[in-house]
Each structure stands twice: as C-alpha cells, then as structure tokens.
Design a protein that fits this description.
The protein has eight helices and seven strands. It is of the alpha/beta class. The chain has a single domain, classed as Rossmann fold, CATH 3.40.50.10260. The chain has a seven-stranded parallel sheet, sandwiched between helices. Bound molecules: ligand NPW and potassium ion.
Amino acid sequence: MVETITPMQMRELEADAISSGLTTGRDLMERAGAGVVDAILAKWPTKADAPRRAVVLCGPGNNGGDGFVVARLLLEKGWSVVVGFYGDAAKLPPDARENHDRWAKLGPVVPFPPQDTYEPFLAGFEPGALLIDALFGIGLTRPIAVDLSTAVLGLAINNFANDWNIVAVDVPSGLDAETGTLLCGPPPHPGVATAADLTVTFHAPKTGHMQNEGPAVCGELVVADIGLGPAA
Ligand SMILES: NC(=O)C1=CN([C@@H]2O[C@H](COP(=O)(O)OP(=O)(O)OC[C@H]3O[C@@H](n4cnc5c(N)ncnc54)[C@H](OP(=O)(O)O)[C@@H]3O)[C@@H](O)[C@H]2O)[C@@H](O)CC1
Ligand SMILES: [K+]
C-alpha cells in the first residue's frame, strides 16, 4: 500500500526541516524544480532530440515558484521555454519571487491569461511540446476563476490537436490535494484546468492523488525526493 500524507503534514515536514536547519525553502524549491525536470526527461527521453519546447504556466504561490525553476532548468538544457504568469510578482512568497526574478533575467514573463494575443503561447504549439502546469499546488483554496480556467482550457484544446503532453507540478491545478475532489465552479466551469500525462509530487504522494478524482487526472504519478528525509 502506498503511504500518503496530507498537505498539512507536508507543510509541517517542510517547516520542521527549515526550522531545524536541515534545509531552506530556497533549496527545497530548487530540488522540486529539478525533480520535475528529471521526471520529464525520464518519461520522454526522446524529447532530447524532439521539439524540446515548453510553455510553463506559473501561479501566484510557491507552486508557481517551482514552475520558474523548471523554466530556468529546461532553458539551461537548451529547450525553448515560454513562461506565462498568473499573479502579481510583488505579492509572490519570497522563494517564488526570487525564482521569478531569476527567470525574468533570462526570458519574458508573459501575463496569463494573455491580455491581447495568445501568440507567445500558440507559437509553441508544435507536436511533442510540453504544457507545464505550475498554477496551483497544495495551496489551492477555492475554485479557479472562469477567465483563468477558460484560458488554460483553450491551450489544452490546442494541446490535444497538436499532441502536446501536460505535466502537473505537485498536483493538477484544480485538484484538492487533500480530498482528491475537484474544486469546481458552476457548469460549464471546468474544475481541473489540466488533466495531466505526468504529475510530479514531492517527498510522498498526497492523499488527494490517490482517492476520488485524483488517479483519473494525475496521469503517471512520480514522487521526487527533495531532501526532507525518508518518506513516511
Ligand atoms: N510546502 C512544501 O513542502 C513545498 C512546497 N513546494 C511547492 O509549493 C506549493 C505550495 O505553495 P503555496 O502554499 O504557496 O500554495 P500554491 O499552491 O502555490 O497556491 C497558493 C496561492 O494561490 C492562491 N490561490 C489559491 N486558490 C486560488 C484560486 N482558486 N484562484 C486564485 N488564487 C488562488 C493563494 O492566494 P490566497 O488564497 O492567499 O488568496 C496563494 O497566492 C506546493 O504545491 C509545491 O508545488 C515546493 O517548492 C517544495 C516544498
Ligand atoms: K500544479
């Protein structure tokens, strides 16, 4: 049986590790991003000589921070990367802000949903590219706004037409990481922005990955070690 932990237990593990001096939030975020990239390259090794193109959608919290790390690490590997950002940089938590700023020195941060044209994102729609969902992780507290979920759905529809693969950072955005239920708005509001081909979570699976809608929307679930000690 797979041992799962709740999001609250994950936060406690993280806080204990940081307060005891075992690690820092910055290092955890770097390892989380590296774990996502490792899982991508393990699942799609041929992408090393395929399009090597990714659109990374980053949200307003630390899940978005992980996304900025993924964007930087893929760029370092020679990928072409477009970053969309749903949020306000000035309000990002510190580690996410740092990684946003590091990325901003490497490439543009395109507001998402885009204000006038989807062109920066659509330019990436070629077969085999990746859509990386770093919008919301264990901090999702309410249904995703209609404008955001509609914009993601628009990209996802293009994705289906163009054989993209979707990678979720920690959880597919819209999935409650504790209960495995979808935080849905009124119909036709989609509850899960992106049902993933690959979900990369950290330290241990969360309860929500394994129950209710979780298994159906996560795709393959990979657990990355981020240095919090042995998993439960
Ligand atoms: N903890 C760990 O051990 C590690 C965590 N790591 C990573 O951090 C992630 C957790 O980060 P997190 O706590 O910042 O939460 P996250 O999911 O980014 O979202 C919070 C933001 O979203 C907002 N918001 C919420 N719902 C919303 C909605 N419907 N629509 C709009 N906004 C909404 C919310 O705003 P608020 O509710 O305060 O208004 C807040 O701004 C975790 O999943 C993992 O990826 C790793 O780096 C390694 C170690
Ligand atoms: K996510």
